Records
---
Amino acid sequence: MTDETLVQLEHAKKSFGDAAVLKDISLSVRKGEVVAVIGPSGGGKSTLLRCCTLLETLDAGRLAFGDLVAAENDGAGRAAYASKDVLKQAKTRFGLVFQNFNLFPHYTVLKNIVDAPIHVLKQPKDQALAHARELLAKMGLDGKEDMVPCELSGGQQQRVSIARALAMDPDVLFFDEPTSALDPELTKDVLKVIRDLAEEDMTMVIVTHEMNFARDVADRIVFMDGGVIVEEGAAADLINHPQHRRTQAFLAKYEED
């Protein structure tokens, strides 16, 4: 891990109608760091991720990816977003893995992975194909190149999703509950892939309900509830010795389950 900050979110606010979902959230992620975001449903975790990956727009706050500023507060305290060109560039800085895979159903596994590098990054086709095959081997998916998603298990589809995100060579990977749609056996395979990426110093932000995984793999854990960061700290410290009563109650409930 280095001191270089790859993601900087400052005083972020987001409401849907009268419901304030993010209330003055600040979060920074350093190069090589793995940050797990935990908390109850409805606490704002997925909205935080969607704002960080430009799928939702902030009402207020600043968002930067390294030296690229995607959003900045204007004079009225509202988030003003950068030009389309800057946002397009910002989108190449991160990858996103969804809980429901979001693969193109009629594309082969290989086409799902190479489509964006060829058309967005303008990589030569041979280079994109070679990299895609390397990534599939890394994901334990040798020989699956010509299959379509419906021919794969959920765990295999999620590993294709991770390969697709990595094919863009992002600075940081965001995961939104990557195992919530999977049964326990398939969950194990996907979590192993993420563990391996952590060992390779891949910068990651992972919204997860897998507490043991968060404790063992993350450098830092952020506990969100009610649209605010209630507590954050070193992973093992926060899981084993939570300081805030809301964190304690949440983790105690997990142990009961």
---
Amino acid sequence: MTLLIAGGSGLLGTELVRRAVAAGHPTAATYATRPGGTPEVAWHHLDLRNPSSGAAVVAELSPRVIINASSGGADWAVTAEGPIRLAIAAAKAGSRMIQVSSDAVFSGKTRVHYDEHCRPDPITPYGAAKAAAETVLLVHSDAVVARTSLIIGDGQSGHERTVHELATGTREGVLFTDDFRCPVHVSDLAAALLELAWGDTTGIHHLGGSQAISRHVPCQVHLFAFCGVL
């Protein structure tokens, strides 16, 4: 087995699976609630809350590369602890690992620009969980942490739906003018992750979009820029 995509039924995972299959890579993928719709891959249930689940899947498949695109929000067991256990299993199996992280590991309070050398200073439970998961680098010498930003995808992402619903009045809520992110299209992000997967680089890499914008007004001078251009 060449490639294992954890969280293969999500927005990013689905695009990773599609691209991997199109490129001819033998691919397996995991799901938490229901398998994805790509029949060319082998689907395996993975519960990142279960300490033995990830190790069992990795031991069964012995993948060359694992990309963890799973999303557990602020659930510490899934977002923080799960990737560490998966990285330990990957190291034991000799599998390379790509851990998808987030610009939410930064507060935006202390700097204008953030690069790969900046220390995380999260201010949300989700950001704290993602920052904790980045310690995969301590347990796996052949791991990569790929920090990204808001993932968009032709109206398919939750971020896009939220903005559209607020704009049309079908949802109640607010958008902040001082929260600036660097949105990235899911297809561009998936391509970059697969490039990292088949390379030999390690450590932290920023894979954000080229423009920092707020979800309230897309064209303003940015206050918080996550530096990482695809």
---
Amino acid sequence: MNEHPTRAAAVPPTPAARPRIEVPAETLQDSGEPNLRSRIAGYVSLTKPRIVELLLITTVPAMLVAARQEFDGLPSLAAVVATIVGGALAAGSANAINCYIDRDIDQLMRRTSRRPLAKQEIPPKNALIFGLVIGAIAVAGMWAVVGPLAAALTFGAIVYYDVVYTIWLKRTTPYNTVWGGACGAAPVLIGWAAVTGHMSWMAWVLFAVVFLWQPPHFYALAMKFKDDYAAAGIPMLPAVAPAKRVAVESVVYGWLTLAVSVIPFWLGSTWLYLVVAVIAGGLFVLEAHKLLGRVNRGEDPRPMRLFHWSTSYLTLLFLTLAIDSFIM
């Protein structure tokens, strides 16, 4: 699964070889100084709030399951608040630093050309300082309230996302989405560590579910915007490999996600979780197969159907896990 695309699939040129896509004049900031509200909105935009929300969806249920299995109770309110706030700040930090690193290619992709740094609304130095500061606050707060393991995992997730994924994997390998998935699945481990101070088999299984779920989720998005990635010279798999290969891998990862998602039943979850995991996971796999079928027939693959359902699937699965923790 981790082999590179065939040589017949040409890797697009590097960003330096492509002209910058000019942002329409009306989208640029006014000649006057931006007001306080627009400045705040710009910094909030750097944190990519929608991604932060998705990360937190997996964190809180993991904390509930950890507390139920370890203490037969609920996590402390202080731990939950600190982990939610710290996790949001940490994710926002990683995303802001990502925007700083990727400001060159963000100007080359229409999907990202409206980001604050691409539009030159915020000085790059300020964005970097902002990201570093809220990241430091997140790690320090986690250390003070929920302990060193959760803080170390939080710090590691930020570094992995910005250094390993953004600087290295994203620009060098079509499997950036696969290996970059480790930081996207880290909130599960962080939430578990915040409650227990250690790891367990259940924590690693939930980590694996999110890790395996990410390739079909992000492959679908990359299929939709493959021309953007090609223009920026980013070797996302859909930009450098045939659509059939991307669809086949989405099916494979979908089945792997379904297989791993039922394991919690044998680690203490109830029949409610198992039923939802099988049904929701089956629909997730079915949508991946539909994508493959449309590709095989030469039709519009409509990848955003898989993208949106994958988000609903993960939300439903972890919501059920949270409910399940009260009845296990």
